[in-house]
Write a structure and sequence with these properties.
The chain is mainly α and 724 residues long. The protein has 26 helices and six strands. It has helices spanning 6-18, 24-42, 48-57, 98-104, 107-116, 123-134, 137-140, 142-149, 153-181, 185-192, 198-228, 241-249, 298-308, 325-356, 358-371, 377-385, 407-422, 428-434, 442-475, 486-499, 504-544, 549-557, 561-574, 582-626, 632-659, 666-723, and strands at residues 63-67, 72-78, 254-257, 311-314, 396-397, 404-405. The protein has a two-stranded antiparallel sheet. Strand 1 and strand 2 (72-78) form a beta hairpin. Helix 12 packs across helix 20 (486-499). The chain is globular. The model is unreliable at 1-34, 40-80 and 271-285 (pLDDT under 50).
Amino acid sequence: GQVYPPCFVERALGRVKLQLSTTNRTVRSAAMVVESWTAKAAKPEHDEKEERNQASKGDEMEDVFLDTEHGRDTSIEIEHPTRSDTDHSRWFPARPSSNLNAIFEEDEEFNSDKHETQMWSSRLTYLIASVGGAVGIGNVWRFPFLCYRNGGATFLIPYFLSLFALGIPLWILESSLGQGIGKSSLGCFRDLSRRWKGLGWLSFVANQGICIYYCVVLAWSLRYLAAAMSKGPIPWGGGSGTEYFQSEILHNAYVCWRRNATLDWSMVGSAPSWHEQVYPLGLLANLSRMQQTDILDYTQAEEMRRRFGFRCHETGFHRQGRIVDENLWSLLAIWLVVLVMVFYGTKTLKWSVYISIPLPYIVLVVIFFRGITLEGASDGIRFYLQPDMERLFYDRVNAETGEVQTAIDVWINAASHIFFTFGLAEGILITYASYNPPHFHIPSNAAVIAFTNCATEIFSGFCVFSILGYMAHKKGVAVEDVVAGSPSLVFETIPEALSLMPSPKVFNSLFFIMLLLLGLTSATTIVEVSVSILRDQCRELIQRGSACSGLGRMIMRRTWFLPCIVSVFSFLLGLLFCRRSGSLWVDLVDGSISNFLLTLIGFCEFVLVAWVFGMPNVRLLLHRRIAWFPRSLLGFLWKWVGPVTTFALLVAGVRNYISDPITSVTWAVCIGWMIPLLPLAAWMIKSIEFQKAKQVVHMSVSSFKISSNTQDVEKARLNQSTAT
């Protein structure tokens, strides 16, 4: 029974006039839509049940969606889902909740919002864009390293179990919420329960944290690409891949001391740094000149370690040094490209994903066929495919370093990688699905994207492990001893192996072009999601008519404002990663988000949907909006398997994070804990305040009703006495 104001009808008529240059069929369809709006404005009183029946009969009518807000002049014909006559009442609640009724009251607004926001032009475009958001550097860097660290094929067992128990069910849950409610993660969680709105801000924090260090890794890739395409030989050729990454890219510094001595970090760096006064290697032979306060580069530290048996440790968070200029400018270039893709991506998104997604696969195929023909490649592939089942159930101790890797680490790493690679709990899936028309089938979309993402990771594993086998053969070591750490796989081992091939510049250039294309599409997706969350918050400010509503209108009118704010803020925080401790910052932020925050958000999403909002209400919502709802199996996974599994992973992750911190520096560990705990605490405080305000309003209404009833009783008594 919503009455449309005249300005709304006039605005809709104006949009139809702007589309006169399109086909006659599109103009006629738009006129039909506007006429229906005009009829509703002229006749506000109507029978809601009768209108709903007429709408269900006319599901085949075409709607025209105009992307006027983002500047895309495209008319998209949308087919409504056909609702069967099967009785599904046993799946639905006897009395829908108040939150569900409030969502249904926005049916007209839900449909009109589809006219004013971005809409995918086809299912293929949505699938390719979703694949671009899921497939990124993590598929080529993170997944092969986790396989390498956790026993090759052994890691694939918990990987696929996590995929089917957590990954696909949570993917369907988030996509169905986005497609059914039509808002970002902030708006979806707010509509399900206002007290759970803070969950959307948790996903915003996780999203931004990943995006910040993601672009830093892209900046390193850009520097490698520039070096590979420059004149002269490959800088990291001849077995110097580690030295180039540590010295030229990260500018890492080290401090060395005798094995029988102790190190006082408070005295480190009091002498001139190697940036200002580089000690020649010849002078290092005179040990009297070597002090614990001296800061050395990678080459000098290796000399002290090999020749004199000193213990060397990178300064890391203790002495972070200055910002590396080359990393600063590379990071700025990456963010400018991301900003341009976000700002103009709504106009050219269809064509950009058609170009940026297939090219990396072509490069992967080239590297694969070259890698499997290398000498020793079979050893690496054998390590990749041969499982070690004991790694899943028994702890392992490294004989050289004494490092203990528990069996639970393998399971935690597999589950956290599923969250990372699919973009779960980050709001990406909800936002992208909110642009879907109602008829897109969610389970089939989940199957296509899950298969594509997993196939890409497994195929990239063959590429990487064939190269690792080649490197092990060249160095004369075992495959498990080739790689030292996570970033070193993609920035030390693989570039060094590619430099040993014929035409090293070509293969290195192709490899880093592939990384940049994969990373830029994912980074653009992450920024778009952050912008959509902020845009939903601005809409809420405008609807509430608060003191900040004017600011919200100003921001919504200037579509360039939010992308610029997000990009500038992320770039400034990324400067922390442009110093000597850049790789440690990446590990710190990635560990706190992947092992704790994403798992927490996933657990809360299962609890909110299945227990707080309720499965019957969810089924009714999805059935009415998109003509699909989860049945027994998905309901069981959402209600029981998902919450129990994510809670167990959350407890194990927190225990691991406490017992084995990423660094020994206290203030850095505190920052790692603050990343998830600060927004969580803010959410809890806001929820308590909302509950108190709700109680105050309830008490005020109750007292008003009591006082009104008392006044009525007194008036009745007075009238009775007067009559008597």
